[in-house]
Amino acid sequence: MKNENYFEIMDNIDENFILDAAPVHKTKKQVPLKLIIAAAIVAVVCASLFLGVNSIRKNEIKLTVDTSLCSELQVEEELIVNTDSIHSESVEALQDVTADSKAHTTDPIADPDPVPDQVDGLPTLTAELLLSGMGQEGHLVYDISDLDKNSPFDPSRELKSLPVYKNLAYDPYTQEHPTSYLSRNEMRDIAEKIALRLNVHIEGHKCFDYLENEGFVDVTDDASITEGIIYYLLYTDKFTLIVGAFGQYSFSFNEGCAISLPHELIPSGDSPTSDETVRVFDYLSSYYSDYICVPNIVGAVTRDYNFYGELFDTSQNFYRLIKDDYEASILNFNFDNYSVKFSDDLTCVTQIGVPWDLERLTQKLGDYPVINYTEAIDALIEGKYLSTVAEDLCLNDGKVKKDNVHMTEIVYFKQSGNKFFIPYYKFYVLLDYHNEKSPENLKNYGIFYVPAVESRFFKNYSLTLGQWVLD
Questions:
Q1: I need a surface site. Which of 82, 86, 306, 328 has the fewest CB within 10 A?
Q2: Cβ distance 222 to 7 under 8 Å?
Q3: Closest Cα to residue 353, out of 453, 264, 439, 241?
Q4: Domain range spanning residue 189?
Q5: CA atoms of 76 and 230, how far apart (whole Å)
Q6: Is 439 inside any structural domain?
Q7: Rounded to an integer, what is the distance from CA 352 to the centroid of its chain?
Q8: Number of folded domains that form the chain
Q9: What is Dmax (Cα atoms) for the chain?
Q10: Are 392 and 101 spatial neighbours (Cβ–Cβ below 8 Å)?
Q11: Tens of pLDDT along 101-124?
Q12: Which residues contact 454 (CB under 8 A, 6 or more apart)?
């Protein structure tokens, strides 16, 4: 899910809903709605947290999976693909080549033995690659370091298994509207407990639902609506607390109440670096632990550029690293992301974002055997991957070369439209395509995925069948 897609939907909210709810302060101004909601967005997006607010249907790609090859039922399942982290500039840079390009396909191989409901005592899975946006998923950067999230992944470390989760907030209609999970009362309880812990004075609240053809609607005064709430906003004398539908929350400090930074912690450039942001997190954990307390936090600020070479977007990915627990660090990298927002002059922290609770929203199906890095690379080189990249026009000979794999992560897809949260190897591959409008030193990276879980656990996809095609 992308910031710009989220803000596009947020533009439909009437700011008066927020302003009218909060008491008027003579010395303080109520934070505008877009800035308030931005805190919730940052908390969700930077963590790749799944709020369920996805791109508009016109920006969708569909993957068709012919399950007749691995099931007795002659059924064709259509999966909506939301190409996450696709930037419109990357799409525009490739728009002249994607029209005639074809998606990655492999020759179907008949499966004489349909996949059972369980393999080695573990439930079989359905591969659902939901990616938001349009065109092909990729990034335009000057160096791969611009995309380095300080991931805990280490190809030299052994990893025998990773957990797979069932998404308890699964919504098959997530492409058409935001998804709710917690009830109004549950969201209110979260907000009020936080306010009580921080000893602040509550001044008002607002609830927003999402209605088809209407967008976000203020339902604060309609007590009959107890389910389907997307946001619960609690106004206090120090901040507005935004609780999301999945339990994630963020603080947006009122004017005059932002957290001032010591001089030595104020970022020196035009925007905070990764190291500067980590030091601010450490400061907040030490002196403002009631708001956020995350020891051993690591991460990075990443950057994307448009095809003219201009800075297009920055994002945060900060998580708790557990040095002696490799698996836990991978899970934190994916599910336990935090965020901060600075004032325009970088002297204050104006927003803090806290992630949702994995245990509340998921059911662990089990620890699944995974392939190692070498096996994943081999599968990638052999063409046994999932990708929206037009490999016939963006790769020499239509194949990925090992030397062009410049970065790897292990990621989980965790949108509300995913039935399961499954780990994948995510490969950043330098493409051979270069737009003539772009600076010569601007590099184009495409994204390729190989399931980390052994293929025998999938009903509709395996590294030997690989019958995924673009519709």
A1: 328
A2: no
A3: 241
A4: 16-36+177-359
A5: 33
A6: yes
A7: 17
A8: 2
A9: 75
A10: yes
A11: 334 434 433 444 555 589 999 999
A12: 368, 369, 370, 371
